[in-house]
Amino acid sequence: MSVQTFDQATTGYSLRQAYCMAQAAKLAYQSPAEVEAAAREWGFDRVRHHETTFRPPFPLEDTQGYTVAGDRMIITAFRGTEPKKIQDWLSDATTPPWPGPANRGFVHYGFGEALQSIYPQVRDAITEFRDADQTIWFTGHSLGGALASLAAMRLYFEDPGLLADGVYTFGQPRVCDATLAAAHDEAFRDRTHRFVNNNDVVPLMPPEPVFKHVSAVHHIDANGKVRDRTSPVGGLTDRAKGMTADPLAPASDGVRDHLMARYLEALEKNLD
User: Of 129, 135, 16, 18, which Cα lies nearest the Cα of 68?
Assistant: First the structure.
């Protein structure tokens, strides 16, 4: 199934909307020209590109994303990065925690710095484009999912009039401590949808108990079926299929299941 346009009147959760958001997350990896062409095809007439640099505990990194707007919907999507790169700069224990939005809890320093580098551009684009009370949506894969989740939280907690209608993330790492996760769950009930594909290793980073996921999760099992909840025993059994000694090895299920293409394949299958 190929998505030609978004249903800009949509509200709430659906697998079709998840598939559309996954398409938008994948598009964040493409060139500005490809983003603009897809935006027009999907029915969005305004586009703003975002690109900045930040410095985690390792060499300079760049943060990229885009915001598109139509008559009834605004979407901001963030680009992800490689699992090994995330592990490298999440593993540095010498950096202090980064204060959460509006001083609610904390986030990992790397995520905080990455978002800070790009957030002013994102907020300016949303407030400029939102001229007809359009719905607001965030999406991203991998690191992009972490930034999508945190950007939605920052937008709302710093300006309660701007509560995102939907946050869809794919292969997102843990982003925050228990305090911020609880604040998120209260504010974003039924608005955040975090997808985890079977053995994807990135959602296991950074480790618990310091860092927490927000509560909403949709698990894609080994057969590609989307399940809204997974029991601890059943989930562990399913995730064990295909696991290798090194989950970050390029050929491991931990990395293969993290690919954006795997998420799109599974979601498309669930639309049948």
Answer: 129
CA 243 – CA 224 distance, rounded (Å)? 16
Q: Which two tokens stand for residue 258?
A: 């993290």
The residue among 210, 225, 165 whose CA lies nearest residue 15 is 225
Verify cis geometry, omega within 30 degrees of 0, for the bond prior to 209: yes
Q: Quick: pLDDT tens for 100-136.
A: 999 999 998 888 888 998 999 999 999 999 999 999 9
pTM of the entire predicted model: 0.89
Residue 33 · residue 186 · CB < 8 Å = no
Domain boundary assignment for the chain: 15-270
- Tell me which amino acid residue 228 is: D
- In 3D space, the residue among 234, 233, 206 whose CA is nearest the CA of residue 222 turns out to be 234
Nearest-angstrom CA–CA distance, 129 and 38: 18
Sequential DSSP letters for 159-170: -TT---SEEEEE
What gap in Å lies between CA 200 and CA 204, rounded to an integer?
8
Q: Look up residue 135 and give its DSSP letter.
A: E
Q: Could you tell me the two tokens for 25?
A: 């997350």
For strands 226-227 and 218-220, give the pairing.
antiparallel
Band of residue 253 on the pLDDT scale cut at 50, 70, 90 = confident
Per CATH, the homologous superfamily of domain 15-270 is Alpha/Beta hydrolase fold, catalytic domain (3.40.50.1820)
Residues in the chain: 272
Q: For residue 28, list its beta bridge partners.
A: none
* pLDDT tens-digit map of 48-59: 999 887 665 555
CA distances from 73 to 44, 132, 190 (A): 8, 9, 18
